[in-house]
Design a protein that fits this description.
about 30% helix, binds manganese (II) ion, about 25% strand, 10-stranded mixed β-sheet, binds sulfoacetic acid, 6-stranded mixed β-sheet, alpha+beta
Length: about 600
């Protein structure tokens, strides 16, 4: 960490004139006391933690149990993404379409400038240069975040390839995302997450939490990148990336889109059932949240994970649900908004609901209040998170850092649906698959503020992240087909279907391997399927149930299509059609007609 006083630029780590001019403007506007140029080193992160502990930003956890781990509590009004305060700012509204909040770009700059004015007085501005994507990848993008949050600085050093590599990649060029972040007074009335895709700029004010503040993640790698991807002919998607290795060594890669807090991290780190492990099956992780994909010169869809760490939901993470996540968070991890457990020696442990440990007799909950078992509240916030470096993951794929990415064999869409949607189905073709993805619905979770548990349409699990007009986004998906010789096969899954007694019909977690195997076999043309109104579906005997404790009849039930439910589903899809009105691409209208006529 180089510390610069006065102008803030005397210690600059780059001579890039575009960077210096922009940072000068931001210093003049925000008036920080101090500017710190970060280099992304391990020592620097350690220094940030030490400093954070003296400032009360971090609490050091018991280092025997949690080596290199720190605790952070965010403001209790600031614990999830705030979609209603998230804006795409352009000269006219048609650029952002009906699914985004829009602000006129000039008006947004003017409004936020007043908020930023002097907002860093008495604070330090951290300059965080970072790369999204493996170094040297054709899609890798440079961003620079200026922030007055030490938590954000330390988190970005885990979540991105941060530091001098970014200055090197940028050189003297002007192609970088300008990310300005200030906590302000963390007041929801003065909270704005603004994206200016035409200027490759993000201004985030008034929130210190995750997707609102770690600007490389949802803001850059999804909203801005999706916009750039459409211009440049590639895709930025809310997808995990995983490798599936068969016993004979055959390796396939799968991309899967699920809305926030629907188990993407668990799926990306899946441990196959005992039987599969014995046979030699292996799952590896490339990424757990975001995929950037392009068609290479041979017409093969390839993907990279732009991130370098995991920002995962903590509650429910344990050695049964996700042992690889437990190992990933065993060291060098930041825990945000879980419960803090004071130990007798004056150090701290942590705890969360549905963890490997019994509830402590006493804890401090995510709001900083005393908590006891039987207290009428959660100890850890349902959206409490871990921030862990991906190198900790024991099943990190050897190609996770490969600039050439990995070839994609199958794309999976999934939502959290207690009714109607079967366990697995395959689209008839790419266009049908895009329709399937566009019609994805999911019951809302704690990852965003608002009501939890209502079904909302979440096209490609991208509803909160498409950085431009959804009409053009869907057309872009259709057009990508032309760039590919043999496009990945597309599937829909639902791990969350419940029976009339309210019990899950599918065990999920590692057992998802059984569905995944059918998906891979189908994609490579060696598994059976039957035609249904929804798409190709396995017969019960096509899913391996050996050792599962489920019968073929149970599978048939999890796969059943109830025509009345399906009609209601199609009616509720109407919502998106009406919203988009005359803007719906004709492929979508035809696919809907075909679906209705198949019924
Ligand atoms: O807070 S984040 O947006 O990064 C997490 C999520 O909602 O997926
Ligand atoms: Mn996500």
């Amino acid at each position: 960490m180089a510390i610069a006083l006065n102008s803030g630029l005397s210690e600059a780590a780059t001579s890039n004139p575009h960077v210096l001019a922009w940072i000068r403007e931001c210093i003049d506007l925000c008036q920080p006391d101090k500017v710190v140029w970060c280099n992304g080193s391990k020592e620097e992160r350690q220094a940030m933690f030490e400093q954070g502990c003296t400032q009360g930003v971090f609490i050091r956890l018991n280092q025997q149990k949690w080596p290199g781990c720190y605790y952070h509590r965010s403001n209790s009004n600031d614990v999830a993404r705030t979609e209603h305060l998230t804006f795409i700012c352009t000269p006219n509204q048609d650029l952002v379409g009906v699914t985004n909040n829009w602000m006129n770009d000039k008006a947004a700059y003017a409004k936020l400038r007043e908020l930023y004015r002097g907002s860093m007085k008495g604070r330090t501005m951290y300059v965080l240069p970072f790369i999204m994507g493996p170094l040297g990848s054709p899609l890798a993008k440079v961003g620079i975040e200026l922030t007055d949050s030490l938590y954000v600085a330390a988190s970005m050093s885990i979540m991105t390839r941060m530091g001098d590599v970014a200055w090197k990649q940028l050189g003297q060029g002007d192609e970088f995302t300008r990310c300005l972040h200030s906590l302000g007074d963390v007041n929801p009335d003065r909270r704005y997450i603004c994206h200016f895709p035409l200027d490759n700029t993000i201004w985030s004010f008034g929130s210190g939490y995750g997707g609102n503040a770690l600007l490389g993640k949802k803001c850059l790698a999804l909203r801005i990148a999706s916009f750039l991807g459409r211009q440049q002919g590639w895709m930025a998607e809310h997808m995990l990336l995983m490798g599936v290795q068969a016993p004979d060594g055959e390796k396939s890669y799968v991309a899967a889109a699920f809305p926030s807090a629907c188990g993407k991290t668990n799926f990306a780190m899946l441990i196959p059932p005992e039987k599969y492990l014995k046979q030699g099956w292996k799952i590896t992780t490339i990424g757990d949240d975001i995929a950037w994909m392009w068609a290479d010169e041979k017409g093969q869809l390839r993907a990279i994970n732009p991130e370098a760490g995991y920002f995962g939901v903590v509650p429910g993470t344990n050695m049964r649900s996700n042992p690889n996540a437990m190992k990933s968070i065993a060291k060098d991890t930041i825990f945000t908004n879980v419960a803090l457990v004071p130990l007798e020696d004056g150090t701290y442990d942590i705890w969360w609901e549905d963890s490997d440990w019994p509830a402590p007799a006493k804890a401090i909950d995510w709001q900083g209040k005393e908590w006891k078992p039987g207290s009428n509240s959660k100890a850890a916030h349902p959206n409490s998170r871990f921030t862990a470096p991906m190198v900790n993951n024991p099943v990190l794929d050897p190609l996770a850092n490969d600039p050439a990415g990995v070839p994609i064999t199958a794309i999976i869409f999934g939502g959290r649906r207690s009714k109607t949607i079967p366990l697995v189905s395959q689209a008839f073709n790419w266009i049908h698959g895009v329709f399937m993805g566009a019609m994805l619905g999911s019951e809302t979770t704690a990852a965003a503020t608002g009501q939890v548990g209502v079904v909302r349409r979440d096209p490609m699990a991208m509803l909160p992240f498409i950085g431009y007009n959804i009409r053009d986004y869907l057309v872009h998906w259709f057009k990508m087909r032309k760039k590919m010789v043999d496009p990945p096969r597309i599937f829909t899954v639902n791990w969350f279907r419940k029976n009339d007694q309210g019990q899950f019909m599918w065990p999920g977690f590692g057992e998802n391997m059984r569905v995944l195997k059918w998906i891979i076999d189908r994609s490579l043309g060696r598994a059976y399927a039957m035609e249904t109104p929804l798409g190709w579906m396995p017969r019960p005997q096509d899913i391996d149930i050996e050792g599962l404790g489920m019968s073929e009849k149970d599978i048939a039930e999890a796969q059943s299509i109830n025509l009345d439910d399906l009609k209601a589903e199609i009616m509720s899809q109407e919502e998106l059609f009406l919203k988009m009105a005359g803007d719906m691409p004709k492929e979508m209208i035809f696919q809907r007609e075909l679906l209705v006529s198949r019924m």
